[in-house]
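hey so i finally got around to running the thing on that chain from the lab meeting. sorry it took forever, my laptop kept dying and i had to restart like 3 times. anyway pasting the input first so we r on the same page abt which one it is
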Amino acid sequence: MRSGHIHPDIVRRSSSEISASTLRSLFHSCPYPVAKLDLAWRVEYVNPAASKILFVDENPVGRDYWNLFAGRVDPDSIWKSRHYLALEDNRPPPEFVEFFGEPVNLWMAISIRPVPDGIFLFFRDITSEKNCADALQNTERLASLGRLSSTIVHEILNPLEAVTNLLYLAEQSDQIGPVREYLQLAGQEIERASLIVAQTLRFNRKSTQTSVISCDSLLNDVLSLQKTHLASVHVKADTHAIRNVRVCGNEGEIRQIVVNLITNSIDAMSSGGGQLVVRARHSTRGNARGVVITVADSGSGMSNETLKRSFEPFFTTKQAHGNGLGLWISRELAHKHGGTLKAKSSQRQGRSGSVFQLFLPEAA
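ok and heres what got predicted. didnt touch it at all, straight out
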């Protein structure tokens, strides 16, 4: 063990092996913030690093943990649910959680470890990692919007052209009945164009706030925006099973994942066409109930080596047409929302293609 570095799993030992006072003496010299909560969510101990970085000008000992962090994190996010998983179920969460720490303006990652009389929290500064990941994510986001731009232009021009034609017909007619019909149809086309703009704005929304999202509506919106690109393939969509399912997260980021998966599937199929399957079902991962969204194509498939590297940053098979960030960013966003993104592929003659499965936990 390196000097000054305390591994979180040290707290798994029983109290007979390591006393509380021994743990505190170890954590006292640790350069990373460490805190201990009791079973009533009161702060029982913080080391000097935590006092200096997280609790400037205040003594948190004896205070309610959630009151200390009020306003810093979304109370309905997975950040809170993973704390409860550790304290009430006595199980460490599968991954660390993140939050923006004030007043020092740092991104912190928290590893949560349960003990018989509470939980230990281990904080790590990930500001540099977040800044780098955000920069790459913004790069991929701009690339995704660029790929969507031509589709959006076509989708908006179509109803505008129809409006122009309908207004011309209305102008030429001298009978009130047909004029009203033409104007009614023109109004419907304008509503269609407005819907496309609204869907685009939702995709482009960059927000740290989470919201409750309808999976069914989200998938249908994405498929609607991709209508032009999907014209050459047979689309089989089945989202009926999740009509009433809601997930909690950043809507723009979840849309970005789905758009990336569908775009990759379209690119994997030849210009001669193919079949795209978008299916959503209830599912569970461990004890988490949620929804799994499947995007499958009948393309040429990936070799085992390509499949293994498909989620690596900057790895691409599209040469100049790709930056190699789409799948990597998509998996990072899935993990951020407490979900997973997995892939399998086949190059067998007559059964080739790739399948991507996105799991997202259902909103409480």
